[in-house]
Amino acid sequence: MKNLRATVATIILTAGVLAGCGAPDDLGEAALPVAAPAGQAGAPVGGAAPVPDAAGAGQAGVAQAGAGQAGAPQAGAGQAGVAPGGAGQAAAVPPGTAGGTGGSATDKNDKSDGAAPASTTPAATTKPKPATEGADPATAPCSGISLTAQLRTTAPAKGKRTAYLSVVNKSSQPCALNGHPDLQLLDGADDPVSTGTERLGTKKPLTLTPGAAAWSTLVWSTVAGPDEPTTGDCQRAATILTVYAPPDNVGIEIPYSAGPVCQFGQINATPFSATAPTA
């Protein structure tokens, strides 16, 4: 009987001990802390995700300076930082890089700066002023040294050709001009080509102030005369026309390309005039 009671007591005691090992119902289960894996910052206890801190210290994935842990680097010079205002905004981009607002590259060859291009239109040619009719006896005669000359030719018409000879006073002093020009054609070797000047009209004295001009009209034949070749050129080709202003004997040489002068080089010339030709 004593053995039976001892056995029952042992069973009851064992059951009580086993029952006492369980946690009280009102306390719930105690959560065991979970160690954060190496290399992660701020691992939550119990696996619950922490609430991001808007101030930046508690933001998810933002590493503390110098911790060496994974996360976005703190904003610095030339580095992409977290944009102010929180997640979801574009990171700042340095000026001059793709997506930035501070600087597309400038092409040094770009000429679209609004500057007007240099004009290529030639300057208008200033026509010389005409000579003055009449001359003071004290005015020195014009010399080839003080004059320039120019010849303007027209197309052959009805067996003749017309040209307009002009002379301009290039000196700083006025000079007197009276009469017809004397002319001499030269070939490419500077040898004289048969030339004769036929003076037409009445001469008038003129005064050429500095820059003033006088004109003479020249006319010659393009038809071969007696004893001239009827095939080919009637006379040797000339390349230079020498102009003599009366009474000076200093010639002014100008280029000539108006073809042969037939009738043995006879050129009809009007006296120098203060009136410019209209043709």
Automatic annotation (TrEMBL):
Keywords: Signal
DUF4232 domain mapped to chain residues: 142-272
Region (Disordered): 69-143, 179-203
Stretch forming the signal peptide: 1-19
Domain of life of the native organism: Bacteria
Native organism: Actinoplanes missouriensis (strain ATCC 14538 / DSM 43046 / CBS 188.64 / JCM 3121 / NBRC 102363 / NCIMB 12654 / NRRL B-3342 / UNCC 431)
Designated name of the protein: DUF4232 domain-containing protein
PROSITE patterns (UniProt xref): PROKAR_LIPOPROTEIN
